[in-house]
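can u do me a favor
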């Protein structure tokens, strides 16, 4: 029923105006609709998360059973293990008409050609959007870097905050975007942290010092926080134009989708959100999955949930390195086609990742991999790489130095040191992709490895 007059009682809230089809911000907690001077239904309570209020209205109008029927069940099982508090919250996502702070950008199939291959199936959280431009964080680009010092750690100082590295030593760092990569952003859902800025109800950025103190004293866990290097930045009006031209879908979502760790997800985050949105978005996600590997099945359906690595000293150093690579390379399925990260790691993932067991042969300094995945999918990720490639079959072994041997292996594709490749910056990765194409054709395996080592060192 059209709202002719709104009676303001107290507090703050939002209400939908059907006449102009947009949300009105009200300085009220209770609002009453008045039509012709006669009060209608009891005023709804709008205090709290107005985004959840809007989502409930969307769910009520969908008529298909709501969010629960679209939930990625195995993702929820994983979240229950990693963060039971978030898992108890309702998971939802729906389309919006335009970009909004706290909302998402979901890359369309046109995004790689319009804004760059790095945006393939990107899910971007908008943290600022206004006349001065827009800033976002890519949620689904985990790296192998951690906050700790030394090997595998962040190779730059974080505002001189040593306590941050101490408290979050094992926290994974995500690539938040492709601008200002010297900036590290902390994302979390902790309301009481001093210095934290709430961008929308329940989602905060900042408050590093308070977060460090809470983790060091045991008040909070490292997994309650996410760290991002870099941001996505757009000039005034640029993001609206890209959305209008079809580079991105815009959406709102529950905070659980934003705050959870995006590691080893059975259903990739982009597909999870698109399916929650339903309708044409869900069909687009299914079509992308079919094009990817010819099936609607989730890539990790039936795979074991991630487990902790065994303590150091229980296996040969090189075996441990390969096992660590097996865990890290799960992220390859969530990187963009054409990037050297995916081109190299995707193939390793098919051998190392999603396995039921890894048997370390300490005496021969090699690792035997058993139970190879039932489907070696997405081999097209290697297209255009310019290197010889034969699909992996049956059993393979990873010997000392990282070379793959076994049935019909691709030759000379892998570096001698996994960690060296993992720690490359975005710019170095782009250079490396070109380097492979231009310099590696016609070289022997040994020459390729040596060339890679020289590239990394210089």
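np, heres the sequence
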């Amino acid at each position: 029923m059209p709202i002719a007059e709104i009676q303001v009682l107290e507090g703050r809230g939002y209400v939908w105006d059907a006449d102009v089809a947009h949300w009105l911000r009200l300085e009220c907690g209770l609002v009453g609709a008045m039509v012709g001077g006669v009060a209608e239904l009891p005023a709804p309570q709008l205090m709290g998360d107005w985004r959840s209020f809007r989502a409930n209205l969307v769910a009520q109008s969908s008529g298909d059973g709501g969010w629960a029927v679209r939930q990625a069940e195995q993702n929820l099982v994983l979240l229950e293990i990693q963060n039971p508090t978030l898992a108890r919250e309702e998971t939802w996502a729906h389309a919006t008409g335009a970009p909004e702070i706290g909302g998402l950008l979901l890359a369309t199939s046109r995004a790689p050609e319009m804004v760059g291959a790095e945006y393939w199936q990107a899910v971007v959280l908008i943290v600022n959007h206004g006349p001065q431009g827009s800033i976002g964080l890519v949620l689904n680009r985990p790296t192998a870097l951690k906050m700790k010092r030394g090997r595998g750690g962040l190779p730059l100082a974080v505002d001189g905050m040593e306590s941050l590295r101490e408290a979050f030593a094992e926290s994974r760092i995500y690539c938040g975007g492709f601008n200002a990569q010297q900036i590290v952003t902390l994302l979390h859902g902790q309301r009481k942290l001093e210095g934290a800025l709430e961008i929308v109800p329940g989602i905060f950025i900042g408050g590093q010092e308070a977060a460090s103190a809470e983790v060091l004293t045991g008040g909070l866990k490292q997994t309650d926080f996410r760290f991002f290097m870099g941001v996505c930045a757009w000039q005034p009006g640029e993001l609206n134009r890209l959305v209008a031209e079809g580079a991105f879908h815009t959406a709102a979502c529950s905070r659980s989708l934003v705050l959870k760790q995006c590691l080893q997800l059975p259903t990739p985050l982009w597909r999870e959100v698109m399916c929650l949105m339903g309708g044409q978005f869900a069909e687009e996600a299914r079509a992308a999955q079919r094009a990817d590997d010819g099936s609607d099945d989730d890539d990790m359906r039936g795979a074991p949930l991630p487990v902790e690595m065994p303590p150091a000293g229980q296996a040969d150093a090189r075996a441990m390195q390969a096992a660590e690579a097996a865990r890290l390379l799960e992220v390859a399925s969530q990187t963009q086609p054409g990037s050297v990260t995916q081109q190299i790691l995707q193939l390793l993932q098919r051998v190392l990742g999603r396995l039921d067991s890894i048997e370390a042969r300490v005496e021969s300094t090699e690792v035997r991999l058993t139970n190879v995945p039932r489907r070696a999918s997405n081999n097209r990720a290697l297209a255009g790489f310019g290197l010889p490639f034969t699909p992996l079959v049956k059993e393979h072994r990873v010997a000392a130095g990282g070379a793959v041997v076994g049935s019909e292996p691709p030759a000379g594709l892998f570096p001698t040191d996994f960690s060296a490749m993992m720690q490359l910056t975005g710019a170095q990765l782009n250079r490396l992709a070109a380097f492979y194409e231009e310099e590696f054709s016609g070289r022997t395996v040994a020459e390729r490895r040596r060339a890679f080592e020289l590239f990394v060192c210089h």
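The radius of gyration is 24 Å. hope that helps!!
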